Amino acid sequence: MDFEFTEDEIRFRDAVSEFCKKYIEPIWVEVDEKNVIPYELIKRMADQGLLCIPISEEYGGMGGTYLMTTIAVEEIAYHDPAVAIAVYALLNNGWPLALELYGTEEAKSEILPKVAAGEAFFGIASTEPHGGSDVAGIKTFAEKKGDVWIFNGEKAFISGVRESVELPWGGGWFLVAKTGSREWGHKNITAFALLAKKDGKRKEGFKETIYEEIGRGGLSTGGFILENYELEDKYRIGDVGKGFYHVMEGFNLARILVAAACIGATKWALDQAVEWLKNRRLFGRKVSSFQGIYFKFAELYADWEAARWFVYRAAWLADKIYLEKDPKYNIKDLNVPVALAKMRAPETAANVFEEVMKWFGAYAYTKECNVYRGWLGTFSYVIGAEGAQNIMRIIIARDIMGKEALKE
Amino acid sequence: MKILVPIKLTYDVSQLKFDTSTNTPLLDACPKVIGDADKCALEEAIRLKEKYSAEVAAVTIGDTQEHYRIIKDAYAMGATAGYVIKISNSEELSVNIVAELLASLYQKTGPYDLIILGSGSSDTHSSFLGALLSAKLGLPIITGVDKLTVEDDKVQGVSTMEDGTYTFNGEPPLIITVTSEANEPRIPTLRDILRSKRMPINEFSSEDLGVEISKIEITDVKRYVVERKRIKFEADDEEKMKEAVEKLIESLKKEGVI
Question: What's the pLDDT tens digit per position in A298-348?
């Protein structure tokens, strides 16, 4: 086993870190305060090749590994602990890969280069107002008429709604809808690249709402209603009735990057804490010299590093499966490693940020301190964005204990 | 057009920490990078490559993996050739020997139209290297350039000094040293980094270059600390003020300030 990053991975991390120090670190607080990522930054990230890293060069991507993609997201989150910019990056890396795996040639050639160029957004649209975790229970329905699918339904808590409408080319999502039958089930779901806007023109039948969230505000979250919305069949992703399986693969890929964002932000919090504790004096000594403080620091550091290894092990496995196509592994082998990472990383972030804010004391309760921004940003993943925490527990328990053990 | 860009592996001084009890730098823990002014030198050369299809050769002196890494980093930025002058513990070389080695490499791998280098390294910052190269190679030099313009055979360098801005004109072959204000060096993309690992790095020894090596010993490195004297001269009337001023002048003379 080799736990070292390669020289190229270290050089890439250094380059991303340099970019982040120059262009992200100076503005992350303003992004969080004003709830918008300046388009200039999205374009810079695109020009730097930080979007669509694992996408083939043929479609405008960097042709990089998933491990490199994970490194990039971790670094961005370290310099943007409120994580809106990191989440913009991770969505526009993970979901484009899902499109490349199963999309049609026409859809890939049309959409992916625009995402890589920072001119289009591509995320995930699965959750609906009545529920998110129960993907088999979605209600948005697509009916095929000739070469066109007609959509009716509603999606909620979707990232990038404003971006898909405001970016120059437009964008949309890897969206799942019921096809054929409206019954609860896994085999009557189809995936699509549904666009809010394309070629600079809004699509008919798409009506959005933007929410006001408590954190991670730089990237919009909202909902949209589809009313007789039309989409050509070339935007279908994968076979009819296979959408559930494709979206679960997409979630596996995206969750690795979500976990990477959480650990990046968490490391920032730990580093802020070290400086604060070393320089603050109470009762005639450095606060860091109290056992109650440094014992707790050691525990939290251990939790962070454990979560980080979960993340990189999952990223390594994703490359084994998708890049190297190693016959020893199959897609389902990713389920538990990803669930471990996505379960641990946000919860570790929450624990670390809470403790760090307690160390900062009353100052942490002020906006000037900024630590709270990372707490709120990463907490969106504890609440359940990109996969509820208890769903991760189900995935792990079902695999390790066996399905029968979970039946009553 | 052919350009030689010497680059130095230096400590990333922005991440340098000190042992507070001895005031010595914790060098082992400090990451090493291409110096800021050297990066600007590379960036100027790459811009000329883009404008005139110039060849850009990067060279460094050392034998560690990190020395080879910064040549790969130079390739990732856009260099077209890379050289390592393999010498162990190269940080112990005097700047005069460094100039000898580079001058010899210049002769062996040239002819070059320009040598562009940083005005000083991020760590030792002797600022002598450009001038020594100029003397050894008999080439004119423009130093401390913040803004470099090359139009065909005309080179113009603008240097901001304490007393004003100076504009120098010259023609190749020429040496230019640039400051870390000269430009914003590009950051390589992943594609650039992956491409750079396939590029060849040519090695030279001091024997290949016909240079006899001698080293200097660095005996001590300490953080510069200004000790506050905390001496107060108090006066609350004109008489006491005169006395206080006399004492202040005496103290300053004792310190050698006046």
Answer: 999 999 999 999 999 999 999 999 999 999 999 999 999 999 999 999 999
Closest chain B CA to residue A19: B187
Domain ranges of chain B: 2-204, 227-258
Report residue A190: phi and psi, to 5°: -125, 145
Report the alpha-carbon distance of residue A334 to residue A94 in Å, rounded: 15
Complex-level ipTM: 0.87
Reply yes or no on whether the pLDDT at A31 is more than 90: yes
Q: Answer whether A63 sits within 8 Å of B191, measured CB to CB.
A: yes
Interface test with B, best of A14, A23, A53 (most B CBs within 10 A): A14
Q: What is the pTM of this model?
A: 0.91
Residue B162 main-chain phi, psi, to 5 deg: -60, -35
> Which contacts of B103-108 are long-range, i.e. CB under 8 A and separated by 24 or more positions?
B103/B133, B103/B136, B103/B137, B104/B209, B104/B210, B104/B211, B105/B4, B105/B59, B105/B204, B105/B209, B106/B4, B106/B133, B106/B137, B108/B204, B108/B208, B108/B209
Structure confidence by residue, pLDDT tens digits, A334-378? 999 999 999 999 999 999 999 999 999 999 999 999 999 999 999
Pick among 3.40.50.2300, 3.40.1410.10, 2.40.33.20, 3.40.50.620: CATH of B2-204: 3.40.50.620
